Amino acid sequence: MDYLTILQILDSALRLATPLLFACLAGLFSERAGIFDIGLEGKMLIAAFFSAATAYSTGSVWLGMLAGVAASLVLSGIHGLASITFRGNQLISGVAINFLASGLTVLIGLSWFKLGGQTPALQGDARFQGIDLPFAEALSGVPVFGPLYSEVLSGHTFLVYIALLCVPLTWYVLFRTRFGLRLRAVGENPAAVDTAGISVVGLRYAAVAICGVLCGLAGAYLATGLGASFVKEMTAGRGYIALAALIFAKWRPWYALYATFLFGLLEAISNRYPSLDLGFITLPSQFMQALPYILTVVILAGFVGKATPPRAGGEPYVKER
Amino acid sequence: MEQLPKWADLIVVPLVGLILAFSLSMLMVFATGHDPMDALSLMVKGALGSTYGWGYTLYYATNFIFTGLAVAVAFHASLFNIGGEGQAAIGGLGVALVCLFIPWPHWTIALVAATAAAGLFGALWALIPAYLQAKRGSHIVITTIMFNFIAASLLNYVLVNKLRPKGSMDPATAKFPEPAHLPSLGDMLNAVGIPFAKGTPANVTLVVALVACIFVYYLIWRTRLGYQLRAFGKSQPAAVYAGINPVKITIITMMISGALAGLMAINNVMGEAERLILGSVEGAGFIGIAVALMGRSHPLGILFAALLFGALYQGGAELGLWTSIPRELVIVIQALVILFTGALDNMVRSMVAKVLVRPKRAEA
C-alpha cells in the first residue's frame, strides 16, 4: 500500500464520514437534552428524498437542501409531539418515524417520478460541486504534506466542510453558552431546570429541532453531495451507525468526529478491499461491515471505557402538580 | 389524565389509533392520485376474498404472531426487544442446519427438531444483549439494534462462504431434503375435505403459532415466572424488594422473547422457502412491534393484530401487482399504527376520554 492509496482511502473516509458526523451531532443534541432518537435514519432518508426531488425539479441544490431540512424538521416535530408533549415512548416514536420515512419516500417518489422509487440523476447545479481549497494546486508539489492537503482535505463539497465546522460549533454551543448549559441540564435533571423557571418543554423542542436540521443536512449530503440522486433506502443503516458512533463518542462532540471518521474509514477500507488480508488472517468483508456494531456493543458493555448516557434520557418529564 | 374503563383502554383506544392510521394512509393514496376506496376494496378482496388470498394472509399472520409475541413478552417486563429481526434470522440458521445436515425420517420429527433449534438459536442471539443489560446496564434497545446488523452480516458470511452449494451464485443454502418439507395448510384442509387453494405458503406452522399464543398466555398470567416478570416490568425496585432477581428475570425474559422470534423461522424458512435465503425475515421482526402494540401485549390481541397485518401485507402485495400504488403503502400504514397506538397513545387516549368520560360527569 503506497502513500497515494492511503490518501485515497482517507479521502473517501472523509466523504463517507460526513453524513455520519451530521447525524451523530444531531443525535448528540437530542440525547443531551434527554430525548432518545432512534429515528435519525428516517429523518436522513426523508431529507435525502426531498432534497434530491427539489434539486431535480428546481435545478438548485440549495433549494434542495432547504427542502430536505424542512422534511426532516417535520419528522422531528412528530417526534417532539409524541415524546415531549404527549410523553409517549421515545423509542417507539423513533421506530415509527423510520418506517414512515421508508414508506413515504417510495410512495411519493413513485408517484412523482415513476422510476421505481428513485429520483432522476442530478446534474450541474442540482448537485453540490467540489470546492478547491486555496493553494491546493500550488501546494500539491510539496512532499508528504502537499498531497495530503490537495488530495484529502481539498476538493470536497460544501457540506463536508460545514460538517467539520459543526464539531467546534457544537462544542461551543453545548459547553460555552447558557443555552448549552441548560440543554445539558435538561437531559440530566429536568426537574432542577424547571425549578429555575426555565421551560423544559421549550428546551427539549429546541434540541429536537436542531437534531432535525442536522439530520436534514446529512440526508441532503447523501443525495446531492455523496450521490447524485435519491435511491430507495439509500441511508442503508447509516442512522444506526451514527447512533453507534454517538455511544462510541460518549455523547461528546470532538469524540463524535473521531468516532464517525473511524467508522467512515472502516467503510472506505471495506469498499476498497472487499476481503482484507492482514497476513496472518483474512478478514471477510462482512466482518468489516459488522465491525462498527461490534465495537459499539463492546463499548456499551463497558469493558473498554464506560459510556454513561445522559441521566434523564428517554424519560418524559412530568411536571409536579 | 382521566381513567378510562378497561374495555375502552383495551379495545377502543387501539381501534381509534387504527382508524386514524388508515384514514391518513388513504389520504396519502388520494394525494398520489388514486381512488382510496378502490385501493381499499382491492386490498380486502386480495387478502380475504379467496382461499388463495387467505393462504397468504395466514402465512404472513403466522410470522407476525411469533414476532408479536416476542415483543409482547419483553414488553411485560418493561424491556423493548427491537432485535426480533436478528433473532428470527439466526433462528433461520438453526432451522437450516437441522434440516440440511440431519436426515429426518418424517416431517413431524423434523418439525419438533427444527422448532427446538429455531427457539434455541433465537434465544442465544438474545442472550448477549440480555446479559449486557442485566449485568452491565447497556441499553437493550441499542444492543439489540446492533445485533440485528451483526446477524445480517453473520448470515451473509455463512451463506456466501459456507452454506452455499458449489457452483451456485445465489447466497442461499441448498433446498432442504423432501422429508423436511412441511405440509401446507391447503394440503391439510383438502385431506379432511375442506376446499382450500393449493400452492399457498400457509402451513402447519400456523398451529405451532396458536400453541405459542396459549403458551404465552399461561406463562404471563398463570405461572410464578410470569408474575415475577410482570412485577419486574411494573416496578423494578418493588420487584427487587420482593426478592425477585433482576438479572435472572431480564435474561430469562429476553431468552423467551428471542426464542419466540426465532420460531418464526420454521414458518418462513422451513415451511415456505424450504431453504435459507438472505434477508428471509423481510422486516417481520419490526412488524412484531406494531402487532404487540396494537394487540396490547395480550396473546388474543396479538392474534387479531397479526391477522390484520397479515391481511395488510397480502392486500398490499395485490395492490402492488394490479395498480401503480406500491406495496410500500403498507409500510406507511404500519408506521402510522406504531405511531398512534404506541408513541401517540396518550393523545388517542385523551381523545377517547373526552368523548367517553365527560358526558358521565354531566350526569353525576
UniProtKB/TrEMBL annotation, chain A:
One of its GO terms (cellular component) is plasma membrane. The chain crosses the membrane at residues 12-30, 65-84, 91-113, 158-175, 205-231, 251-269. Keywords: Cell membrane, Membrane, Transmembrane, Transmembrane helix. The keyword Cell membrane applies. GO terms for molecular function: transmembrane transporter activity. It is a multi-pass membrane protein. InterPro entries: ABC_transp_permease. It comes from the Bacteria. It is found in: Cell membrane. It holds the Pfam family BPD_transp_2. This is Nucleoside ABC transporter membrane protein. It comes from Litoreibacter ascidiaceicola.
From TrEMBL, chain B:
The chain crosses the membrane at residues 12-33, 53-75, 87-104, 110-128, 140-160, 202-220, 240-264, 276-293, 300-317, 329-348. One of its GO terms (cellular component) is plasma membrane. Coiled coil: none annotated. The keyword Coiled coil does not apply. It comes from the Bacteria. Keywords: Cell membrane, Membrane, Transmembrane, Transmembrane helix. GO terms for molecular function: transmembrane transporter activity. This is Nucleoside ABC transporter membrane protein.
